[in-house]
Amino acid sequence: MRVMQRILVFAAAVVLIMVAPDGSSKSGAKDRVVPIEKMQFKAANPGVTRAVLWGDPTKGPYGAITRFTKGTKVDWHTHSHDIKAVVISGTFLYDNGSGEQRLGPGSFVQERSTIKHTTAASADSDLMFFEEGAGPFDIKMVK
Of 44, 116, 125, 127, which has the fewest Cβ atoms less than 10 A away? Predict the structure, then answer.
């Protein structure tokens, strides 16, 4: 029984050591909450703004909320890294050569870096989607 008590005391001590007085872990990691009205959207391309949630799209992996104004279209292109997206509002128009697909809220798309495609917002509403890039964001236009 004494062995079990020592293990419990040791475990409790480890937990107390790892948690700072403000409730954060010793590593400094904290929860992050960003209401939409506090997100800082910055111009990414004509008709496109992005609020970066984590990472840095100019340097490596990232997560962001991206907005296209209605009717904005990015013609045929590829990216250097895969991008995953989930539509939040509006209609995401996506074509990878198999014909245009209309993706509404809740829809998911994974853009492979090697696949040429177009992306657009429908003409009737702005588009907002969550985007996660596996590496730095870029657009390589193709004909």
Answer: 125
pLDDT > 80? residue 5: no
* H helix or E strand, kind and range, residue 6: helix 2-18
Q: How far, CA to CA in Å, does 98 sit from each of 35, 72, 116, 118?
A: 37, 20, 11, 11
For 126, the enclosing helix (H) or strand (E) is none
My answer on whether 4 and 22 are in the same domain is yes
CATH number for the domain spanning 59: value is 2.60.120.10
Same domain, 24 and 62: no
Domain with 9, as residue range(s), is 1-30
25-65 pLDDT per residue, tens:
556 778 999 999 999 999 999 999 999 999 999 999 999 99
**The token pair that represents 16 in the structure block:** 């107390």
Q: Please report the pLDDT score of residue 12 as a whole number.
A: 37
One domain, residues 77 and 24: no
The structure's pTM equals: 0.78
